[in-house]
Amino acid sequence: MLSNFLFSLNVALPIFVLLLLGIFLRKKNILNDNFVACANTLIFNVCLPAKLFSDTMNTDFTQAVDWKFFLLLIGGSLVFFVFFWIVGAVMLKEPRKIGAFVHGTFRGNFVYIGYPLIQNILGLSALPAEATLASAFILPLNNVLAVIVLTVTNNPGKKIEFGKIFLSILKNPMILGILVGLPFSFIRTGTGFEFPFAITKSLGYLSNLITPLALIVIGASTKFTTIRESIKPIGVSCFLRLILQPLVIIPLAVTMGLGTAAIVVLFVVYAVPAAANVYIVTQKMGGDADLAAGIVIASSAVSLFTMTLGIFLLKTLAII
Q: Which has fewest Cβ within 10 Å: 28, 48, 182, 239?
């Protein structure tokens, strides 16, 4: 029992140590808004695409992935999205707050926090195939759902332009990294092709930069003053995102007989805190940015306990 607790703590704690370091460095004025903006641009446009390209290229997609994994991944996301919208509409009356609540509750930080967590739990240096596939489907789906809920709640009657949404998804650097990596994956699987050492090593350097830099940046972006103003919807959002989702999904995954990697990826998808860009996208689309920021901050703090407990239970029950 103690060993399982220590394993869980060792998996989750390093992530939050770096988040706290970011908060500390910001308070000491070692990091500022300009650094955060530049670092976000570097991670999003360079490092993440390089990692996703590398992990996609090194993944053998000729091995079939269980359709039940996709059912829980995509079907679960859609069901939760509708449920969160209903909860938000019942609890909140102002449309802008409803949109921010739904957006912050369904959109998890699968990339910045999820990737290192998956690797820590499984003890891998690269993402498993399930994680790469989850990225390829969840990231576009999140973008589409975010535009839908924020357009409907912030601009009643405005037409949703799916063509523009699809084009923006194709231009997303992370999606491009996956798409460019796919043909190289099949070439590598069929012929054993490898890039020269200098290229693979450079990609490795960029990939290794993501986790520490991203977590420090998230910490440096944290502002606690927004939480007090909307404590009830923030609390409900944290419960739905961090507790209800994994409690529903993981028993279903175990019952369906999914493998360890698939269960870990699903746990992370549904148990990580709200994504940092929830605040940015909500603000840009005219939603309640303060509520969105509060959900991001509170869920990040609470997830230290909920994810550690979740990993502990998975380990104790011999699910992972």
A: 28
